[in-house]
Write the structure tokens for this entry.
Amino acid sequence: MRKLNKEEKIKVVSELQGKFQKAKGVIFTDYRGLNVEEITGLRNNLRSASLEYKVVKNTLAKIAAEGTPVSTAKDSFSGPVGIAIGYDDPVLLVKKVLEYSKTNEKLQIRGGVIEGSACTLDALKTISGLPSREVLLSMLAGVMQSPMSTFARLLNATLARFVYAIEALKQKRGE
């Protein structure tokens, strides 16, 4: 990394702080041993899912984390740190980063911050087993719809029995 002047550092910190504020998920990685080609592959893999991967100096990342949900995991800023950031679905972020770390063992995951809570590697692995946000929402809609449709069937059955009873009564009186 080249030396940054003061204005560039201020710009990097404010940009990173804005990203930390908007992020639903942030994962900290140790990228030692990855060459440029492998880091570019990781970035492209994440970018295809609207996620980001940044390599930032620790001191700048610590300053940017102040006053954001990421400040809960400032201990992760030691040694070379790469930061994966997701703005929409934190589960997708965790799945993508863990998937890449399985194919390339040089990428070590240190932890992360999901929805404002600091997470260890084990917690991230648990989160990766969750279905995506869209699947969870459709499951919730199905659960909410089930009692309503059952209630509608019950009302329909009661109404149908009433109509059958009236028809039977009409036929009986007609005889």
Notes: Strands lie at 25-30, 51-55, 82-86, 108-114, 117-119.
